[in-house]
Amino acid sequence: MNSKQLFNIHKGEQFQEIVPEKSGHSIVAARFLNKLYDLSDVAPDNGEVEFIQINSPEGEKILLHSTAHLLANAIVDLYPDALPNTSNESEDTFYYDFNMKPVSIEDFPLIEEKMQELVQANIPIMRKILPKNEILKEFSYNKYKLDKINENVPDGENSSIYIQGNYKEFCRGPHVPSTGYIGAFKLLSISSTNYEGDVNKDKMIRIYGTAFPDKKQLKAFLLRREEAIKRDHRKIGQEMDLFTFDNERAPGMPFYAPNGAIIRNELINYMKELNEKSGWEEVWTAHAFKDIIWKQSGHYYKYKDDMFLFTLPNGDNYGLKPMNCPGHIAIFQRSVYSYRDMPVKYSEAGTVYRYEKSGEMGGLTRPRGFTIDDGHGFVREDQIFDETISLLKIIPSIFKTILGTEEITYDLSVMDKQHPENYLMSYECSSCGEKFMLRAASQEYKCPACGSENLNSDFSMWDNATENLRRALEELKLKYTEYPGEAAFYGPKIDVHIKDALGRLWQLSTIQIDFFMPANFDLYYIDKNDTKVRPVIIHRAIYGSYERFIAILLEHFNGKLPLWLTPLQAYIIPVSEAYNEYATEINKKLREKGIRSKVDISDGTISKKIKLIRTMRPSYILVVGEKELANNSVSVRNRKDKTREYGMDEFMGIMAEEIREKKIEQAF
């Protein structure tokens, strides 16, 4: 795990009072008792504090969030009638939604000038705690903020607002200490959306931007972004004829053309090979289920607004699956398992469906229908470590094979023990001794047997699972960052991030421990004492979704995929009509060897044919003429336009080896 520098602080002392000298603007917040604080906050107790660097992932997110508020400040200064709605941050960008008169990218210089003016003023960003009724008064002019306040602050409770000069924002924070910490920013684009993503609600203008601690990092990002636009998977997909979308008949649903299906199937087949080696058994589950299963799993209540739900003429209510796990659970429940049978591990290339809003869909990275390389391991608690080790060994090898990258980072998301009510926990009743599981934030905090509220928390299940994940990471000497409070309510998890050729980090693989589903579906196995014991589920996805992973692949390689993934592996061109027969014979031999090839015997010059096929990104172009016919050879041109002559049988062997070993680089 990455080492942390900790500092001692006393109760009532401001965090900024103990910030190391000469730190400048490099420190933006503090972590104390697993919670992030503004530097202007005071410590609620004695303890050790870790300072958040602006260049850290958390620091960058705080910087982006603060810059979004800087944008909102500039907007209301320039356009007094504008009503700010809400902001959001991704890895290196932010957006803010406004109800305001139309603006365009031509207005960006004016807005950026105002933002820079606010930065130069170095305005302190102050946090203020107020009761809900006073916060409502502060934002009485803005119906969107009133909605947010009422949704997030219970009656009679307090919350925070942030004040920077004449601008106020309802927000939990934290923020950079002042606007002067915002070193470099750029507005990127603009789009239209609707309030809460509902087409029937108010129109909104969404402004996107980015921010970095300095101009050098901003410049590097803008260069990467420019290259990313050139490599947009939607553009590459069209050029290579990989997939299409029909927004009239099936919006958000990808249709794979033959070339795209080749890539998809190669990835699926590779995952099947790895699953078989690792003891994951292939299963298949239906696409539609009665809604009773989604209510039992909890997906109905969480995803209802994002699910495709329908009612049959007989009155039965169904839903297309947003997740594969309930189907795998149904398969597990068909049998009774002994502790000796565990673990039971199912995998499936399972297609799921989620109703993404029309303004949020984006090619293969955000479709409404997508396929997950899903896996669910039903394990004993003492098997969590070994199964995690197995997965953590597979994951980097897969991405090194496919992407040729070893730049991988790991996040460990754990519970916040200061707020056990937010998690599914084991409890023991002090009054009657009943043991049960409960998520106090969503259920009545009392014993189901006797009604007593005198309950003792049992962290052992969480501690065991978290320690097994942590120990697995450390056993393999993997550097990771631990995020307290970021665990799902049903268990801790490991997220794996991969860096692509453009330096972008993508969160792909997930190893998620789940205590909730086994309890909700009353799953069990029989232990050596002939007693029913609750298993733990490990949710596992390595690619994530095939659609998103294919998009990443296309942009990472700019469409020039490794040979084993390339739809068109060899393209054969005769120099004239006299050699059409030889070219056709070569094509036949290649296809008999399982190599995806095509022959071009159409009219036209060689240079014209090569130019036209470039967008399809074939791995090799084979040119044949008099010399090649005489020598039973081919003149091979690679993607760098280097040419070399090979004997036909020799080159087929070279290609076969390159495919079999899944090589990233071409043979020459």
TrEMBL record:
Q: Which GO terms describe its cellular component?
A: cytoplasm
**Bound cofactor: record note:** Binds 1 zinc ion per subunit.
Q: Which GO terms describe its molecular function?
A: aminoacyl-tRNA deacylase activity; ATP binding; metal ion binding; threonine-tRNA ligase activity; tRNA binding
Q: At which positions is Zn(2+) bound?
A: 325, 376, 539
All copies of the Aminoacyl-transfer RNA synthetases class-II family profile domain together span 232-562
* Cofactor(s) it depends on: Zn(2+)
Q: What EC number(s) does its UniProt record assign?
A: 6.1.1.3
- Which SMART domains does this entry report, sorted A to Z? tRNA_SAD
Report the subcellular localization: Cytoplasm
Catalysed transformations (reactions): tRNA(Thr) + L-threonine + ATP = L-threonyl-tRNA(Thr) + AMP + diphosphate + H(+)
PROSITE patterns registered for this protein in UniProt: AA_TRNA_LIGASE_II
Keywords, sorted A to Z? Aminoacyl-tRNA synthetase, ATP-binding, Cytoplasm, Ligase, Metal-binding, Nucleotide-binding, Protein biosynthesis, RNA-binding, tRNA-binding, Zinc
Any GO BP: threonyl-tRNA aminoacylation
- The yes or no answer to whether the keyword Lipid biosynthesis is present is no
| Organism domain of life | Archaea
**Family annotation (PANTHER family):** THREONINE--TRNA LIGASE, CHLOROPLASTIC_MITOCHONDRIAL 2 (PTHR11451:SF44), THREONINE-TRNA LIGASE (PTHR11451)
What assembly does the database describe for this protein? Homodimer.
The entry sums up its family as follows: Belongs to the class-II aminoacyl-tRNA synthetase family.
For this protein, the record's HAMAP family field holds: Thr_tRNA_synth
The protein depicted here goes by the name: Threonine--tRNA ligase
Q: What is the lineage of its organism?
A: Archaea, Methanobacteriati, Thermoplasmatota, Thermoplasmata, Thermoplasmatales
